[in-house]
Design goal:
- Strands 1, 2, 3, 4, 5, 6 and 7 form a 7-stranded antiparallel beta sheet that branches. Strands 11-12-13-15-14 form a 5-stranded mixed beta barrel. Strands 9-8-10 form a 3-stranded antiparallel beta sheet, with helices on one face.
- It folds into 2 domains: 5-167, Hotdog Thioesterase (Thiol Ester Dehydrase, Chain A), CATH 3.10.129; 196-312, no CATH class.
- It is mainly β.
- It is built from 4 helices and 15 strands.
- Helices cover 12% and strands 36% of the residues.
- A hairpin with a 3-residue loop joins strand 5 and strand 6 (137-150).
- The two termini are 35 Å apart.
- The protein is globular.
């Protein structure tokens, strides 16, 4: 998401009030509800399709990207922890910035986490941007930082950034003669040297899966090295196109240009054993089910963009 255009901060009294929250503690003395443990590591790895041997066995470590998972409070939250963030959020709500969208996160890993480690954490509001105008609306980017520790030693840092904004449509008066606008385009995929071969295959209506030439492990999405043996050499196999819905979500809100919610996004298990995320088409969004058989096809969205999607087989609706 674009960080938007700067507005004049000198004429924004709300921004001056928001700046007073910078550096304020959001959580002090937080404690993970559970120690680092093998069942949660196993569930995480199964969900991610990550079979790296470092995450299992007597010398197992937790995947670094689980850093935030050990600090989460679940549905019941963390009792007794004050939150400057809630106070600041109420201030933004009162100013009309009632919508929120996550924009990005950054993590730094300083030491591995192992089963049995007890997690403590502190967090603060690190920064608030001046008022900015984006396609979603006008608001403020808020960055929080969480420091995660084990026995007082810093294990990692997690920064999370959101946009708290007033929706662009709020209060907009309809024009007497609306001006026709060109149809919005879907975002373009990021193509780099690690995944260029995949997109070249898509252009030929072929779905390629990477295969390590050392241990023969298939992997998807494309990576520069094998997550099983660490090998750097690889070739490809072409997917048959058969698959099943392993899991799915239905996207309802917020609407973005070029997307028409609600629609189903599936985690598709291909016949070859790897999984990929794509749209499920050919069935109503509320009829998509886990285990539904699907078939690969390529859908054109505009003259420059064609993407792999998965069509529900006839008679497979739940």
């Amino acid at each position: 998401m674009s960080r938007g255009d700067h507005d004049d901060a000198s004429s924004d009294p709300l921004y001056e009030r928001l700046k007073t929250f910078e550096g304020r503690a959001n959580t002090t003395g937080g404690r993970g509800k559970d120690p680092v443990n093998e069942p949660m590591i196993r569930h995480w790895c199964e969900a991610m399709g990550d079979a790296h041997p470092a995450y299992a066995g007597p010398d197992a470590v937790a995947p670094p990207t689980m850093l935030q998972a050990w600090t989460m409070g679940g549905l019941s939250g963390h009792a007794g922890l004050s939150s400057a963030y809630d106070e600041m959020s109420a201030l933004l709500d009162a100013a009309g910035c009632t919508s929120i969208v996550a924009t990005d996160c950054e993590q730094e890993y300083l030491r591995p986490l192992r089963p049995g480690d007890v997690i403590t954490f502190d967090s603060l509001i690190e920064s608030v941007s001046p008022r900015k105008t984006t396609k979603l609306g006008t608001g403020y980017f808020v960055t929080t930082r969480m420091d995660v520790r084990v026995d007082g030693e810093l294990a990692g840092t997690h920064r999370f950034r959101v946009l708290k904004y007033a929706p662009a449509r709020a209060g907009r008066k309809p024009e007497s003669k609306p001006k026709p606008e060109p149809a919005p385009l879907r975002p373009r995929p990021v193509i780099n040297r690690d995944n260029a071969g995949f997109w070249e295959g898509v252009a030929e209506h072929r779905l390629f899966i990477q295969r390590c030439t050392g241990c023969q492990t298939l992997r998807f999405p494309w990576l520069p090295g094998c997550n099983a043996c660490g090998g750097q050499d690889w070739d490809t196999v072409e997917a048959s196109g058969d698959g099943t819905v392993h899991s799915y979500v239905v996207m309802h809100h917020p609407p973005f240009p070029a997307f028409d919610p609600p629609y189903a996004v599936g985690l598709i298990e291909l016949a070859e054993g790897v999984r990929m995320i794509s749209n499920v088409v050919g069935a109503p969004y509320d009829k998509v089910r886990i285990g539904m058989p699907v078939r690969l096809e390529f859908q054109r969205y505009d003259e420059d963009l064609e993407l792999p999607v998965f069509r529900a087989l006839p008679g497979s609706e739940g």
